[in-house]
Amino acid sequence: GGWCSQETLPNGQLVTGKEIYFVGIIDYLQFYNSRKRAETILKGFTYNRQEISAVDPKFYSSRFCNFMCSMME
Which residues in the chain show pLDDT less than 50? Predict the structure, then answer.
């Protein structure tokens, strides 16, 4: 399964688009433990903390949802 894209016509009618989106969440079973916290700190010295993958789960969730919404506009 997947999500069909939708398009709004100038008259306001919503129609099914040509794209189908598939999402795979690979980090679902990964615990944010002390090792991941240490990874966040260490990578934060070298990379932008807003862009690294090892971040607090609440931040990761918010960033993921914002990204998905921006891709489907």
Answer: none
**d(Cα 52, Cα 55) in Å, to the nearest integer?**
7
- How many CA atoms are closer than 13 Å to the CA of 63, on its beta-carbon side? 12
68: Cβ contacts below 8 Å, ≥ 6 apart = 23
Going from the C-alpha of 4 to that of each of 7, 11, 18, 20, the distances in angstroms are: 10, 20, 7, 4
The amino acid occupying position 71 is M
Q: Specify the pLDDT at position 20.
A: 87
How far apart (Å, rounded) are the C-alpha atoms in residues 26 and 63?
A: 15
